[in-house]
Amino acid sequence: MRKKFGLVLGFVLVGIIGTAILVSLRSPSLDRDWDDDVRVLAGVDARDGGSIGLTDVRDWRYTRDSVVSRSYFDARYDSDDITDVWMYEQQLDDLGLIAHTFVVFDFGESYGTRRYLGLSVETRRESDEEYSLVGGALRSFEVTHIWATEEDLVTRRVEYLDYPLRRYRLDIPHEYRARIFEEFVRETGQLATTPRWYNTVFNNCTSSLIRYVNQSDPGAIPVHYSYVFTGRVDEYLAELGYLDSTSAVTIDRAYLAERGVR
User: Fold this and answer.
1) Domain that holds residue 56
2) Distance between CA atoms of 74 and 79, rounded to whole angstroms?
3) Is the pTM of this model over 0.70?
4) Shortest CA distance to 237 belongs to which of 143, 103, 38?
5) How many domains does the chain divide into?
6) pLDDT digits 0-9 by tens, 116-151
7) Is residue 6 part of a domain?
8) In-domain check, residue 25
9) Higher pLDDT, 7 or 60
10) Among 38, 80, 126, 129, which has the minimal tally of Cβ within 10 Å of its Cβ?
11) What letter would DSSP give residue 113?
């Protein structure tokens, strides 16, 4: 019996080691048959004075049944103009443990229809792939930055995919807002030429934001289980004083029908 158990354990260990070796040998790519929503990569123009140029910012339009338009635009943004940062949370499981989060930067009224600029850190899936937590940990997906209008990011999830969202205002100092935006832009520029793997733990939609906050203020957001169980990050940020719980709004199809995105 012990001998049989030892053989089984040996096969398991060999399988684990073999899988780890195969995973470590995989290389990320910029050239695959990508899903439509992640096919176009945002890019970064050189700074012009204090502004930063973003190319291919997504601005799609959706109904409950289809994508009705697929447009992109180029625009310049000045990080010093950021007046607020908002976090959206899309719950993905019944227990509220897993969520997709993305941020929206408010640049003020002078930016007109491009005032609310969102960033969603996502897996760059191929046309025949679906996201999974295990796949995200085993180098199955490249990571991509989707810069898009708030209307695109919200209506895609709420109207088209029927996922209600929770929106919160992030209570962080002005200089941190600028640094976070600039760090995301810097990495966006790198991803346009040098692909990287998405990682469920270390490089997901939430841990990326936290990493940039900590680069602005080391240790500001200590390591916590919500780095992985992202559905709890709103509670954790509220405990730390970085999230204004009183600002919480639930955005669903009824909300959009009555008020629009905001």
Assistant:
1) 31-259
2) 16
3) yes
4) 103
5) 1
6) 999 999 999 999 888 877 777 788 899 999 999 999
7) no
8) no
9) 60
10) 80
11) G
